[in-house]
Amino acid sequence: MQTKYINEMLNLPELRIHQILSINADELHIEALPLSDRQCCPCCESDQDVIRKGSNEPRTVRHLSVFEKKTYLHVPSIRMYCTRCEAGFVWTYEFVGPKERYSRLFRSHTVEQALGSTAAHSARMQQAPTSTVQRMHNEAIPVECERIYEQVWEEAKEAAELVLGVDDFAIKKGHTYNTGIHNLKGETMLDLLPGRKLEELRTYAQQHPDFLLLNPKAVVMDLAQAYHTWISECFPNAIRIADRFHVHGYVIESVQEVRKSIQHTLSPRAKAYLKANHRLLNPPAESLGEESRKRLETLLNYSPLLRSVWEWKEAFTTWYDCSLNFAVAKLGFERWCEQGDRIDHAAVRNTLKTMRNWKAEIVNYHQCRWTNATVEGRHNRIKAFQRRHYFTRNRSHYKAGILIECNRHRLLG
């Protein structure tokens, strides 16, 4: 059988294919020999006095699949002896580690699949035992995490105008949370710390001096007081920005509270129609299609109060999008608050109280227009990771897996 191009297919430059031992429906067995006649002594690092002293049983090494067949390489286990050092050793191959039954290419490819899915899925794809793939995955995680961790922090330290994003996500909603630190301009996740309370955040800053060495221009976060206190302590010169989508959520929530209060005053038919289409009140009107706009107009005709609070919500979106600069934004924010003062509803009053308390952080968006939108997308990736790896109990493995999941595609790209 022709073996001229098999070496190139298998990517094994140190070997030459001697013969094809067997082929069946599932497996391919290939006998391969080393190209070189000698190998350097591990003690003196010279091959001048190295001789062969026979061979042991051939090694069988699982390699990457060829034409969807499991491929096994049968290579000689050659005993070597250095007459100068009087040291005996066994021929070592670059494509496979000592005493290993899987080639390095097979291990790296299998781990690559497992990082994006699960060990069980990768095992099915590679037709290998799940426990073996899981072991390879666990061995590769710390090394890959350390490489990525160093790279993302080096980028953050060298960034000219670093913008950080800080946000939490739930491990168990209502009980346990983690806080992620993100480089928004670099599109990477820098670190993951347990908890979201101020004491836990301060402890992290004390234990990680590299974090305090960063020089961010701005930090984007939600309206949690603990985050703003922590960032003002760590980076007093940074612009603290209230995340636009979190802030906008308060306004949308007040619109829905008004909708619920007037819903009970309508006829059964109108009540059912308003309840079924209540989500049309949330997005900007310009993003809706023609049919959706007609239904929205029907909803707004049910109550002048609902129309006024919806227009107030639309004015907030316009303020975010159309303020030319920071000075104009401050004046526009006051006019928007005055518009809300004319709406007589408790939900609107509560929202306005929150907005005025956080006026500086909200208006700071117009000094540095960044949001945590990419962070929220990354949270979806983290949630998918947690569903796939629900069995992970080791904190270091859990953290390493999330950092790899959130960074590797961007760094590889």
UniProtKB/TrEMBL annotation:
Domain of life: Bacteria
Transposase IS204/IS1001/IS1096/IS1165 DDE domain sequence ranges: 164-400
Transposase IS204/IS1001/IS1096/IS1165 zinc-finger domain mapped to chain residues: 38-85
Listed InterPro entries: Transpos_ISL3, Transposase_DDE, Transposase_Znf
Name of the protein: ISL3 family transposase
Organism (species): Paenibacillus gyeongsangnamensis
Organism phylogeny: Bacteria, Bacillati, Bacillota, Bacilli, Bacillales
